[in-house]
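Input (structure):
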């Protein structure tokens, strides 16, 4: 292969490597852009509360590119109209919010900078408080893309006690079956152990008896052998 061909082949290899690197970089940047800021109201985004109680409306945020002047707010969907509850700006990661404004008397901000927590408390809930609450966030690092998560609150006069009779019966039956199975296995193992010991004892007795018989035969043969004159 001449020098020109080698150079051409090396150029193609370098071009392929650059293409792969560019694709990987694009993929990484794309993943970060898709999940740059995430607002979450927990794995169970709803709650049933008793009228007159105090409830926590949870919300946290996460970002793989960091935050700068993150703006967040809590809103309540009141018959189609978004009612502002609280809003603030977080300058950067692990910092307390500034310019925090709580717009309702029964609302208290209880967030934590260590856990990226921007939750609020709602005091003395009423039936009118039932509905959807939106935790909204906007990070300037993402060119002001909007993100939000919904938490649904249900308000009842009193919590209905769930009848667990059937569940208890099923649990008792399952527990009894497992206990019986364990007892059966213990008895079976103990029986097999005893039988093995008895069999071993019988073998020892047979060996001993056989040895005694052989000894008696030898002795009997010795006594019956006539002496030569």
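Output (sequence):
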């Amino acid at each position: 292969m001449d020098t020109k061909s080698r150079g051409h082949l090396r150029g193609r290899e370098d071009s392929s490597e650059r293409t792969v690197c560019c694709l990987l970089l694009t993929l990484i940047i794309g993943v970060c852009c898709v999940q740059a800021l995430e607002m979450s109201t927990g794995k169970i985004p709803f709650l049933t509360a008793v009228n007159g109680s105090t409830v926590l409306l949870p919300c946290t945020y996460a970002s793989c590119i960091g935050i700068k002047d993150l703006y967040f707010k809590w809103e309540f969907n009141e018959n189609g109209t978004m009612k502002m509850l609280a809003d603030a700006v977080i300058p950067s990661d692990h910092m307390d919010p500034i310019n925090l404004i709580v717009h309702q008397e029964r609302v208290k901000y209880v967030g934590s900078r260590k856990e990226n927590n921007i939750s609020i408390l709602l005091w003395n809930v009423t039936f009118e408080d039932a509905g959807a609450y939106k935790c909204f966030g906007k990070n300037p690092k993402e060119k002001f893309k909007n993100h939000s998560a919904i938490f649904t609150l249900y308000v009842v006069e009193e919590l209905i006690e769930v009848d667990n009779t059937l569940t208890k019966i099923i649990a008792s039956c399952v527990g009894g079956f497992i206990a019986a199975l364990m007892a059966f296995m213990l008895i079976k193992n103990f029986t097999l152990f005893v039988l093995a010991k008895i069999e071993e004892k019988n073998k020892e007795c047979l060996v001993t008896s056989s040895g005694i018989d052989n000894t008696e035969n030898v002795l009997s043969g010795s006594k019956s052998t006539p002496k030569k004159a």
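Notes: The chain is about 40% helix and 30% strand. The helical segments are 3-34, 165-224.
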